[in-house]
Structures
1.
Amino acid sequence: MVNIDYRTLGPSGLVVSTVGLGCNNFGRAGTATETQEGTDAVIGAAIDAGVTLFDTADIYGKERGLSETLMGKALEGKRDTIVLATKFGMDMAGVNGPDWGVRGSRRYIRLAVEGSLRRLRTDWIDLYQLHQPDPVTPIEETLETLDDLIAEGKIRYIGHSNLSGWQIAEAEFTAQLHGHPKFISAQNEYSLLARDADREVLPAVNRYGLGFLPYFPLYNGLFTGKFSREGGPADSRIMSARRYLLDSAPWDRIERYQAFCDERGVSMLAATFAWLLAQPGLTSVIAGATKPEQIVANAEAASAWTPTAGDLAEIAAIFPSPS
Ligand SMILES: NC(=O)c1ccc[n+]([C@@H]2O[C@H](COP(=O)([O-])OP(=O)(O)OC[C@H]3O[C@@H](n4cnc5c(N)ncnc54)[C@H](OP(=O)(O)O)[C@@H]3O)[C@@H](O)[C@H]2O)c1
């Protein structure tokens, strides 16, 4: 067991580890977690380390639904000890049944939740997240359906993902107006190099007291310290599939950041977790892992270094916010 902190997720009684596990590697082609064995190893290591929050989605995996299917098996006998988050609302290409492009609708959500429960081999989902806005269905219909699912015990809490600031405010007030349970969390891209959420999303998240779950928190692994401007491990996602992230990265600033870490004797991984967990409203860093040692390293990194206000100001000067 590693020394991990736990925080409540937004205005709720749901307590999660500040190091979560992003689960979009499970069933991903070309990774060690493509298989059941690889998935079992990472999930087992995460639970042993004290990680409780597992974030997946119905769409993850080389075939839609595969991440959930592999997780359902890996979590047999362990389900009660973790907080299981999944998502609906991306194009499942018919795997959940026809959706006619309205995946926040009453009809579709019913299909989606049954598909996720079946694949995950569970009776309930702890955090059920709208993966992206549905531009057609009124948010009132989505909230009413999710309210019913909470009442039926199929889901416990609701969150959203990829909403803009005004959409977060609209959802908040619609829930208030109609007396529905509110979304407790927002999930949007956020890292040292992806700061759009600073403009509208994080102000809304903090105004309404939501929990914030940053996706791509390590910028697909770039902030693990294993890359340089020349390259990195051949089996990494960045080198095998997203080389453009390396080529377009601002290496002068990343090297300044590495020097900042070296001066303090802290790893880039630990500094990055510390910076993320110091951001107001940010509840848990849901970084993905393709190997058991990665999730253990992440769990250890989160408590390895406590930055001063001056340290955080220096990091902010290296990676300024666009807001
Ligand atoms: N809501 C949305 O629309 C949305 C979109 C994307 C992601 N997400 C969620 O966010 C989660 C996190 O995103 P992500 O996993 O794609 O990106 P990430 O957390 O920025 O990067 C994770 C990758 O970095 C590498 N890594 C992690 N820890 C490491 C360590 N200690 N040492 C060395 N390498 C390490 C691994 O890749 P390699 O081994 O391949 O290098 C891992 O897959 C996802 O799993 C998913 O749950 C949500």
2.
Amino acid sequence: MTLEILKYPDKRLRQKSMPVEVFDKELHTLLDTMYETMMAHNGVGLAAIQVGLPKRILIVNVPREEDNEQYKEDLLEIINPVFLKQEGEMEWNEGCLSVPDFYESTTRFASITLTYKDRFGNDKILQAEGLLSVALQHEIDHLNGMLFVDKLPILKRKKFEKELRRK
Ligand SMILES: [Zn+2]
């Protein structure tokens, strides 16, 4: 089963998501369905708000460097994330399942550390760099109602608006 993904400029994407308090079967089903939805759309990350649920839940499954393939064992299920550290700077060409067919480079922190809860409510800590770090920052922005196109400098933003009108 897959869920419908909300697309820009759907206003629901602007909601601020609320923390998860109950770590039950319903949450597990949602996480499983989010994974199927992300994979069906060839995504590397998905936030719950992208399927219309304003909860602080995201999943990320970045491809491995050696073969550019996604492995389910690398899947991260991140609930109620909080940044502990954000360092450095890097550029990455980003895309988003809610902003289909548009890619643009953005500036992100190169290295992040965050705390979060897993699907059982256990406290976890994660340090990430490179694509994983970018993907996590991108998805956490979704929890705060932000899209990567909001971060673009004015000229790139105009290019985006222009491409959007062309569709
Ligand atoms: Zn996105």
